[in-house]
Amino acid sequence: MLRLAFRTLRLRKGGFIGTFIAVFFGALIVASCGGLMETGIRSNAEPQRLAAAPIVLTGGQTFELPKEDPASLEADDKRKFEDARLPERVRLDDGLVSRLRSVPGVSDVVGEVSFPLAAGGQPALGHAWDSAALTPYTLAAGAAPVAGEVVVEAASGLKPGDLVEVAARGKTESFRVAGVAGAPRSITQAAVFFSAADAARLSGYPGKADAIGVFTKPGADVEAVQAKVAEVATGATVLSGIDRGVAEFPEADSSGTNLIVIAGVAGGLSVMVAMFVVASTLSLSTQQRSRELALMRAIGTTPRQLRRMVLGEALAVGLLATALAAALGPLLGEWLFGQLVENGVVPAVLRFYQGWLPAVVGAGAAMLAVFIAAFVAGRRAGKIRPTEALAEAAVTRRWLTPTRVVFAILCFGGGTALAIVTVAVMTGPVAASTAGPAVILWAIGVAMITPGVAKVMTAILQWPMRLLGGIDARLAVLNTRAGVVRAAGAITPIMLAVGIATANIYLQTTQQELANQAFTEDVRADAVIGSPAGGLSPDLVQRIQAVPGVAGASEYVTSSVFLEAPYDSSDDGRPAIGLTASGVSATTDTKVTQGDLKALTGRTVALPDVYAKDFNRGVGDTVSLRLGDGTPADVKVVAVTSQRRGFESLLLPADLLAPHTTAGLAPQMLVRAAPDVDPAALTERLREATAGLPVSVGDRGALIAAHDKDQAVGAWVNYLLVGMIIAYTVISVANTLVMGTVRRRREFGLQRLTGSTRAQVLRMAGFEGGLVALIGIVLGTVVAAGSIVPFCLVAADSVLPMGSPLIYLSIIGLAAALALVATLVPAWAATRGPAVDAATSGSD
User: Fold this and answer.
1) Distance between CA atoms of 462 and 471, rounded to whole angstroms?
2) Alpha carbon 548 to its chain's center
3) Which of 227-241, 490-504, 723-737 is the least confident region?
4) Which of 107, 157, 181, 573 is the S-S candidate for 217 at Cβ 3.0 to 4.6 Å?
5) 173, burial (CB in 10 Å: exposed 0-12, middle 13-18, buried 19+)
6) Which residues pair with 111 in a beta bridge?
7) What CA–CA distances, in Å, run from 274 to 366, 450, 538, 793?
8) Cα dihedral value 489, 492, 493, 495, nearest 10
């Protein structure tokens, strides 16, 4: 039977092109997502500034978070703890440098300090000259810097003896250029070197190091030295090889985690879609060969032989398609990675990987889909009796099986359960975590019963169709009802495309709009002051508050903190905002239900009412926090606030939160105008008051635009990946419809011989395509509603999502246009020749 399968492939090349296309694109998308996941898992970035040191130490960016209430745990029960990632940089004690010098095999140890600045108006990173050896930088002119001097790169255009204005930590100072240095390799970020004392002062972290480079003696075993260093540097992260890049570019590690999530979601969704698309295409291909299979059963072919032939044909096509997809997967994966880099989702220093494993996974997923689809199709063909097969050769009618019923019930039950959980348990935007997967369950459930639903909907739509198109529409309805299983093969991918696109896009637009509303509701600022050089000077608040027309000013710091006592099960931390007590009432509109935000000074906190209720804490109580860099802090509750559900944040004093962020200073300051002062006039006054300072002043629109931009990055990722999956389903729709229409050449010829004109045949085909599109659109809309409505009820108190109606109209318009084009174009081609030639031709 395998030999017969290969002969069939040679003689029926056109009949298997559809299956090839479906398998190829499915494997291609999964393989490319696998490349993104491999890149995220590795999270490798080539070291640049630290490339010369074979071993690099950084602060440990994780801490042990209990999975259960610590009161019920034993101290040595490590199984009940998990690593939680700290969002801010953890710095090392400079005293570790001297201890590491005594480690056997170590020749030298150099501490690295890095801080943002602007030199001559250009952004750069500041370092101590001692750390130049980590690259290594060498002097091309001049000498090493002393106090009040700097060494710059040749690209700056400066030369020894020049004066340069350096803005760092909210202040500007003049430094003399002592020398010009160069590096042996390309460095992404410009560097400015200071004396050790100046670097410690400007960094704001004297006695601390961002990283420590360890040099080994000639001939020493780096791995052995690394193990000894780890014994001495307890709690630090010890890196070697390409892993050293994470010490220099910590954003690569966090971006890698995000990339894993993105690739996992997109790849998993792609696999699910591919399963349906391949199954639908292969099933249609098998149905179109029903006469041939029926004749084979009639001449004595056993069901097992028939199943083996169908399976062999499918696997042969699948192997060819997956081999090509495996070869082209890295190209698509690299293109997707480039788009993520270009749009700021991942840093450019992250290295893209696409090894053999993603190709194998993509091929395996596609071949599994082929095997399952071929097994089902072959089993269906093999079970029928020869006489029944001959009777059903023209039209396949039976479709409902116990397997379909069971899967449909399970999926509808799962979708309903997720909807109940979304409404009853979830709050705010987090409800998307259960609403999102629901669309897949609803889609699978509907796909299982699509032929039956299509038959019912065709019966309902037949009357308006007949009124609209007369005899041509009536023939279209009759053809669709007679070939409902064939039509379901095209309806299913349309349903998937409409359902997935509508659900995912509107979930994203709703979350984005809710986030913008929550931000604009809480922030009452008329102007915002920012810093291009690492942060604002803490004493700037008093200076701004003294400007005429200012009703209040507050620093604005964002981070995440972990609640340690009382016990909190969240392993992602809680959002935290740092504010200045003297200006918090004027610049924010947070409703206070207990206490007073003016008491937000020292080691204090304002808890959202949801947290206060969950943790049984109120004004006067104490809670234990772990700040973003891992520093523990016991704080007193001075207020309880009412915030929009799902967007709650702990409010802390800015001078408590800011020093424990990576920058160490507030990056922004909110300013509120007095009631009788025009906001535009206030902005101009602030520009005058901050003239000469390394700050930027913008109006409220600039503040909101910056927030929108941050939200847009996440939205863009969703649109890109969902768009890729939709493109695949669109290809499948066209593929299925073209296959189904081209095979009807003989039918169209007979119809023309009985009196129909070519135009009437094309109109009938157009009505069929429109009916298929309409059914698919309605089912896709129902599928999308199954996830959107529960989410919107929870997050927005509405059954309708937030977003332009043009999004939905564009989706259904594209689906309808695609269905019509994919039906009419092959119908036009099938009716070009004489009708008698078409009527006497074979089914191929």
Assistant:
1) 11
2) 45
3) 723-737
4) 107
5) middle
6) 212
7) 7, 17, 56, 31
8) 150
| Backbone angles phi and psi of 601, in degrees to 5 | -135, 155
pTM for this one? 0.80
687 three-state secondary structure:
helix
Q: Stretch 226-242: mean pLDDT, rounded?
A: 91
Q: How far apart are CA 214 and CA 211, in angstroms?
A: 10
Backbone angles phi, psi at 744, to 5 degrees: -100, 20
Q: Is 369 exposed, middle or buried, given 0-12, 13-18 or 19+ CB atoms closer than 10 A?
A: buried
Cα(574)–Cα(647) distance, rounded to whole angstroms? 10
Task: Give residue 460's region: left, alpha or beta (phi > 0; psi -120 to 50).
Answer: alpha
pLDDT band at 393 (very low <50, low <70, confident <90, very high): very low
Residue 204: left (phi > 0), alpha (psi -120 to 50), or beta? left
Q: Is the dihedral of CA 543, 545, 550, 555 positive or negative?
A: positive
Distances (CA, A) of 128 to 194, 209, 238, 797: 5, 11, 22, 55
Q: What whole-number distance in Å separates Cα of residue 843 and Cα of residue 747?
A: 9
Read off the amino acid at residue 665.
Answer: L
Residue 399 identity (one-letter amino acid): W
User: Both tokens of residue 799?
Assistant: 């059954």
In the structure encoding, which two tokens stand for residue 723, read together? Answer: 């768009």
Q: Average the pLDDT over 436-443 and give the result.
A: 82
Q: Residue 160: its pLDDT value, please?
A: 94
Q: Band of the pLDDT at 700, cuts 50, 70, 90?
A: confident
765 closest CA partner among 468, 395, 476, 481: 476
Judged on CB neighbours under 10 Å (0-12, 13-18, 19+), 74 is: exposed
- The residue written with tokens 């890149």 in the block is 39
Is pLDDT at 388 greater than 80 in this prediction? no
CB 560 within 8 A of CB 575: yes
**Beta-strand pair 171-182/149-153:** parallel
Lowest mean pLDDT among 285-289, 365-369, 511-515: 285-289
Give me the pLDDT at residue 72, please. Answer: 60
Could you tell me if 446 and 782 are in contact, meaning their C-beta atoms sit under 8 angstroms apart? Answer: yes
Surface-to-core class of residue 295, CB atoms within 10 Å of its CB (0-12 exposed, 13-18 middle, 19+ buried): middle
Q: What is the 3-state secondary structure of 719-742?
A: HHHHHHHHHHHHHHHHHHHHHHHH
Given a contact cutoff of 8 angstroms between Cβ atoms, the answer to whether 686 and 514 are in contact is: no
Can you give the pLDDT at residue 745?
A: 74
Cα 667 to Cα 192, 522, 555, distances in angstroms: 21, 18, 8
What 8-state DSSP symbol labels residue 346? S
Q: Is the pLDDT of residue 524 over 90?
A: no
Contact indicator for 144, 198 with CB cutoff of 8 Å: no
Residue type, 393: A
Element (H, E) at 672: strand 668-673
Q: How far is CA 413 from CA 502, 536, 730, in A?
A: 22, 54, 28
511 closest CA partner among 435, 439, 432, 433: 432
Cβ neighbours, 10 Å, residue 677: 16
Cα gap 237→61, rounded to integer Å = 8
If you compute the radius of gyration of the chain from its CA atoms, what whole number of angstroms results?
A: 33
121-135, 311-325, 656-670, 830-844: range with lowest mean pLDDT: 830-844
Query: DSSP letters along 352-415, please?
Result: P---HHHHHHHHHHHHHHHHHHHHHHHHHHHHS-HHHHHHTSS-------HHHHHHHHHHHHHH
Peptide linkage before 66 cis (omega within 30 of 0): no
DSSP letters, 531-581, are -SSS---TTHHHHHHTSTTEEEEEEEEEEEEEEEETT---SS-EEEEEE-H
Q: Output the pLDDT for position 646.
A: 79
Which helix (H) or strand (E) is 126 found in, with range? strand 122-128
